[in-house]
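Q: For a teaching session next week I want to show students how multiple molecules come together into a single three-dimensional assembly. I've collected the sequence lines for a complex. Could you give me the predicted C-alpha cells for the whole thing so I can convert them for display?
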Amino acid sequence: MRLSEADLDHLLEGALFTSCSVSHEWCEELRDTALEYMRAGAPGPELLDISAFEDTDLIATIGFVNKGQPVTELRPVGDEFVTCLELLAEAVGRPVRGIMPLAGGNANVLLAMAISVQTGLPVVDADPMGRIFPLVNQTVFTLAGLPVGPVAAAGALGESAVLQISRPERADHVLRSLADEFGGWVATASYPMDAATAATSALLGSLSQLISIGSLLRSPLPSAQKHAALRRLAGVKQVVRAEVAQAGWHAHPSLPGQVKFPSQVILNDLAQGRVVQLQVENEILMLMIDGSVRASMPDIITLMDPESGAVLSLEHLWPGNVVDVVVLPAAPAWYTPEGLALAGPEAFGLGTHRREGRR
Amino acid sequence: MNRRSHEQVDLAALLEAPAVAGLRAEYLAQAATRVESVALVSSIDDVTTVRADTLVVVADDPGLGPWMISAALRYAWERRASGLVVAQDRISDVEKALAERLDVSLLGSSAEASKVAIELAMRLGVAKAGQLSSVHQFGRRIASARSVDEALRIVAGELDGASARLESAEGLPLAPRQGKHDHQAPEERTLVSVPLHPRNADGQRVSVEVWPHEAPYAERVLEATAPVLSALVLEAQLRAMRDSLPALSLPALTGGRRPWELTAPTPGEAKAAQGAPGQDPVADAHLAVCILAKHRKRVGAAVHQRWLKCAPATPLARTSDGWIAFVPSATPAEHGRFARALRLAFAEEPLPDVSIGYSRHRDTPGEAASELSEAWLAARVADAQPLCFDSVTAGVLHRVLPADLARELVTKLLPELMADPGRDELVESVLAFLDSKGSVSGAARLLGVHRNTVQTRVRRAEELGVDLSAPDSVLPMHLLLRGVRPEVPETTL
Amino acid sequence: MRIGVHLGNERVALVSIDDGGQVCTELVEGSPSDNGQQLDLLADGLKRLVRTWKAGQSGAQVRRITFDVGTLLDAGMAGARQRPPAEAGATPVLVRIAPRPPADRAHELRNSAPGLQRAQIHHLFGGHSAVGEELAPLDLGGATELARRISPGQRIVVTAVGSLTNPQHELAVGKALLDGGQPTEVSYSHAYFSTSFAARERTAMLNSSLTETTARFATELAALCRELFPLARPLVSTNDGGSTSLSRLSVSPVHSLASSPAAKIVGASAHLGHREGKLLIDDPHQPLLGQLLDGLPVVGSRYSPTEVGLIASRGALSWSVPDATLAQWSGPRVHVTSPEAVCALGAACAPVTEWVNTMSTIKTHEEFTAALRMAENRAHARLVSLGYAPSSVRTAESRAEAATFGHPNIVAIRVRAVVDGLPTHLATSPDPPTLASQQGA
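A: Of course. Below is the structure for the complete assembly, covering every listed component.
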C-alpha cells in the first residue's frame, strides 16, 4: 500500500509511542525528508506485506548506528543509505528488492519511509526488534541464529565500508567505532536475507501496527477511551499517573565491560503517595513502584499526557509535570530465555529482580 | 525495674551512645524494631533470604545501580528485616522517601561494610550479654526468698506482675498465684513453665504467663528460680516432717487398735491417762483432723501447703491413707475459727479424691482416740468440703446414696411419678409425711398446707408407684425421694 | 521603586511597585499603527504615572523599568508574514557549514521554517564533531568567494555542524563575510542552544528578521528612560518570565518574542501570592494555564511560536485552556479584568535572569558537580558584572538535561540565576482600573 502524508503522520506518532526518547525532532526531520520528495511529485512510500515478495528476493535491514553527534546536528546529505544498499548488493551479488527498518520504533521507521520514497524500494511490513533496542545485535534475527553480515556502512563525510562479519554482537562493536570515526553516526544496511527467511523470522505486521496505534493516538477521542482502545489493540496498560519530583541525569563512572548506570527520574503517585522510579538511558529501561519492579526491559515503557493522551518525550519529565506511565509488552520472542538473555534486565545491568504481576 | 531487660535488643538501643562510628540513621522505623542478628550481604538478591529481625548490611559494590538500594529496601520490608545499612553516598532523597513509605529503618555508613557489620554484631552480643547479667542479678534476689510465696512474688515482680504459680506435675496448684492474672487477653499470653528440679520425682513446676516477646527472658528467670523454689518446698516438707516426729506415734496413740475401734475412754482410763506423764500425748484441749487421700503421694505437697495456711504450727502426721493432726482448740469459738480456716484453705482449690473430717468440740481433754475416731468417720463420709462429725449424719445420706444415683433409680423405678406434672409437690408431700413419722397433720404443718391436701397428694403418689405399705420399703423410698429432692429440710433421725 | 510597562496592540499598561509593595496602575488607550506612535503613547503614560506619584507621597527612586514588548513583536511578525513574499531582503541568506553539501534538494530540508522555501542557501565545507574536533577543514576560500557573491545589504545567518561545542568555523566564516562583503548583519547559530542544526538556524533566522525593527525601538526606549528616570536600569522582559538588559533587545529579540504570556503568568502569580504549582489565568480573551516552581514560571528548553517550528529559546510553559477545564478547575485561579495590566505587573516583577547552557564532557560524578558549579559561578558573575549585588543573586535552577544520543559522557548543563529583591507582599491600590481579582485559593 502507498502511504499518504496522513499515514506518515500516524506512523510517526506510533513510532514515537513505542520508543520514549529524548526528543521527537530526529523522527520529524526524517518524515519531513520523505514529505519533501512527495511534495515534489514522488509517490509515497510503499509498504508491502512479506508475502508480496518472491522467496528469493533480497531484503536488507537499514538503520542508523549512533555514537556522539545526533543526526539532527550532522544531517545526512542523502547518499549514505543509497551507498549502503549498493555496496550490500555488490557484496551479496544480487540487487536489494525490499528494505526493513532495523528497529520497530523511533527514527529508523521513518528512515525506511524516506529511503523508500527516495529510491522507490518497497518497505517490508516487518522489523527485527518490534520496538527499539540500543544494540544492533538485539534482534530476533540474532535469536534465530542468522548472520548479521555482510554489513555495508556509510558516513556523513562520504566514507564507507563493507564489513564481513557474521556474529551480530561483533557487528555492533565495529559499527559503533565506525560511527565515532565517521563523524558521530553511520548509515548501515545489514542482515541481508531472502524474503522467505524474513517471512519466518522477522516480526511481521509491526509497521502497520504502528500506523494503527498512531492513528488512535491522534484521534480526538478523550484520554480514557484512547487508553481502552490501546489496551485492546496492543495490550497497553496504564500503570501509574504520577508527578515528576526529580529528574536528574547523571554520568556515573563505568567499569570496563559494565553498562553505565542509567539515570533516574523520581515521581510521586498522587493518588496513593507511592514512590515511582524510572531508570532512563535513551529509553526508559525500568519502572519501580515503592521499590518493587513493575516493568523492565524488554517491556516497552512510555509516557502519555494525562489530559490529551498525546505521546510525551523524555523532555517532558520536568519537576511538577504530571504524566501517565504506560507499559506494553514486547514481542513474545523477547520473553523466551534466549530473548531475555539478549535483551532482558540482565543485559541492561538491571539485575535479576523478580517482576511482580508479569508473566 | 529496667523495662528494656524484658524485651529483645532494640535497634535504637543498638545504635545508642557511643554512636557507631560512621553510621548515620537516615530513617528509623516508627515501630520499635527488634534485632536478632546481623547479616552482611554482597548481592541485593541475598536480602531475600534473610530471616526476620535481621539487620542487613549491604557490602558496597561499584556494580550496584542506584535503583538496587530501592529494591533492597523493598526486600527488607518483605522479609521484615530490622533495617538496612548501605554506603552513605548511595542514599539520596528517593531512598529516604521510600524507607519512610515502607517504614523500614535505613542507615548510611561511611565506613567499610564488613567493619560496620562486625561492630554491629559485637554490640548485639554485648546487649544480649547485658540481658544475661540482669538474670544474674535476679538470681541473687531470689536466693533471699524465705518462703514459696515470697519467691513467687519476686518472680511476678521481675516479670512486671505476670501471674506466677507453683504447680504439681498434673497442673494442680501447690501455692496461690502471685502477680495479677490478666483476664483481658489470656490467649495472647504464652505459658512458660520450668520444672523445679530436673530430677524432681514429684514433677513440680513453676509457671508464669507472659507476653510472647517476653517468653525467652521469662524462661531464664524461671530457670534461676527453680532451684530456689525446689529448696523452699523441700525445706517446708522436711520441717513439717521433723516437727511431726515427736508429736505423734499412732500406735502409741491408739494402743495398736484401728481407728474405728477407738472409743471414748472410760472415766477411769481418762483419769489414769491424765496423771501419767507422757501417756496422753495430747494434753490440752484440741480437735482431731483426719485427711483421707486416695492418692496420697500425689497430693501430699498440695495438702501440706494448704495445711500450713490454716494450722501452720501444727504438724500433719502421715498415715497409710492420709494424714491426721491434733489442733489446739480450747473453746467453741476457737473450734469454729479453725473449722472456717480449714474450709477456706481447702475450699480455695479443691483437691480431687481428698476428703477431710474433723471432730466435734470437746470440753474435756484426754479423749484423743475417740476424737480421732470421729475425725476419721467424718472424713469417710465427707465429700469436697471438710466435714465436722456433728454433721456426719447429713453426710451419710449423701454417701449412702449419691444424688445422681438416686435420680436415676427414681426415674427407672417410678416413671409415672416422674412424668407427672405435679411431681415436685407429690414428692415434697411424701417426704414431709415420712419425716413426720407418718403423720398427715404433722406433714401438713411442715408444709403449711391443709391436711386434706397432703392426704390427696400422698394417695396420688401411692397410685403412681410410691410404695409405703411395707416397712422395709419405707426407708429406701425415703432415701430415693430424698435423693431427688435433697433441699427438703431435714430433721435428725 | 520598579516600573513595568506592557506595550500592547490596543493600549499601554504601566504598573509601579514601591519598596513597600504598593502597586499603582495606569492605562493609556490607543492602538497605534507604528512604533513611533507607540513611543508617544508610552511617554504620555509614563509622565502621567510620575504625576500620580508626586501627587501621592513617594519621591521614591525608580530603580528599574522593564518593558514587555512581546505582543508588539508578535504582531509585527504576523504582519510581516502577511506581506507579499516578493519583498526582497525579507528572508536572510543562509550559510550552512557541513562536511558535505546535500545530495539533493529534498535533503536541504527547506520546510522546517517559513521562508526557507525561497531562501538562498549556500554551502561551505567545515564542521565539528560532538567533542569539538574538526570533521572537515574549513573552506575559507569558499567563504571569501561567497562574500563577494552575496549582494550588499543582506542579513546572513551562519550555521555550522557542531558549533555548539566549537564555534570556530562559524566565527571564521562570519568574519570573512564581513570583511569581503557588505552585509547588514551576520548572525551566528551558536548563540542559541540546541543540538538541532535546524532549530538553531531557524532561531537565528527569526531573530535576524526581528532585529531590523527592534534595534531602533530599543534605542528609543532607552532614550526615553534616560530622560524620565536617569537613574533607572532599563530592562526588557524575556520569554522565560524574567528580564534582561534592554540593550539585548536589539541583539537577540527572539528571546522576548513570547514575553507577554510569561509576564502574564508572573503578574498573576505575584498578585495572588501563589508561588508553587499550576495557576489558571482566567483571561476572557485567552485563558492560560501556567506552572510555577519556587516563584518562577517553569520553562522548557524550546518553544514553538505560531507557524514556526521549535526555536531555541527558553519559554515559560503555558497551556491553553479548553472550556471544560475552565469550568471544572478547582485550583488557584485569577480573574483578569485587564490583561495588559497583569502583563505590566509581571514585567515589573520579572527578576533579572541569566542562563548558562553548555555541553560538557565528563567522566565522573565529581567532574559533573564541578561543571555545574562552574556554570553557576558564570551565571552569578554575569549578573554581578551588570551591577547587581552578589547577595541578591541566587541560582534558581541547576541541572543536567538529557544528553545527546549515544554518548554517555556528554551532558547538557542548564543553569538559571536570578536577581531577587521583590517585596514579598504586594498591595494593590484600590483605584481603578483593577487589574485582577482573586477567586479562592
